[in-house]
Amino acid sequence: MTPSSPTATPRVADPALFERLVDDAAVFPPGNAPLDEAVRLHRFHRAAGYASMVGPLLLPVSAAAGLEDVAGRSASSLTPDLDVALVARPGVPTAEVETAVTVLEAASGVTVVGVEMAWSRQWRNAHLGGLRLTLEVPRGEAQLTALDDLRGESAAQAKFRTGATPTWHWPDEAELAAFVLASVERAVPFKLTGGLHHLVRGTRDEGEQHGLLNVLLAVHLAVTGAGHEALTTVLGERDTDSLVQRTGLIGPDEAKAVRTTFTAYGCCEVTDPIGELTTRRLIEGA
Hints:
The structure is a single chain. By secondary structure, this protein is of the alpha/beta class. It has one domain: TIM Barrel (Alpha-Beta Barrel), CATH 3.20.20. Helix content is about 40%, strand content about 20%. It contains 10 helices and 10 strands. Strand 6, helix 5 (about 175-185) and strand 7 form a beta-alpha-beta unit. It is globular and about 50 Å long. The chain starts with about 20 loop residues before the first strand and ends in a 7-residue tail after the last helix.
């Protein structure tokens, strides 16, 4: 059951629950925005009423060389620096990541705020100037090895892929619940990427998709001591009204705990979830 409209007036959620939650992945599939268009739109987002919800612009390391010119052409003397996080998919050599960071740190009007790359046992050998690292973890036993490695590391967090790709099948509710619990048990913060375009778990033309509210509530359950079955259940819920109402009941301290654990996620169209949050009155009109 997925009601088309709310049956009761929901409570506006604590703003801390959504602060810089949505990283701008406009250039990545399925958005695939050209670099100049992505920069222009990101500047628009950062000046909009919902700017506090938007994180950095995510860019592949291959885009670093072209960004300085694009950023300069879209800026003025009053334009703030463009916050950028560089993303290297698994298989990209560390040397290419290091070069991209060097290029952008020398660029005018650009601030590199983080790097995302695949976890490996050698990740500490990367020379990235002390930037915050987000390390994409694998599946299965290797995932637990990676999370054990990240336990207690203030310089890095984990990343898990919640959407399908040609080489990565969609992780179901049980698998995502296991990742969340394993991260919480080790006090390893994480971000997610892929497929979280909508608030509620659904089956869409693109395939199965997790829901943002489902994830927030699952993390809330995990940090308050719930087990795998409870997380799996909430990740599978499709009752929009119920999910909205429960999200609105998360208090300030609980919201902080949720976001300390679930730090952000990448979305190729940041206004999709923000628009739905506005429609469902979980945030003030953005």
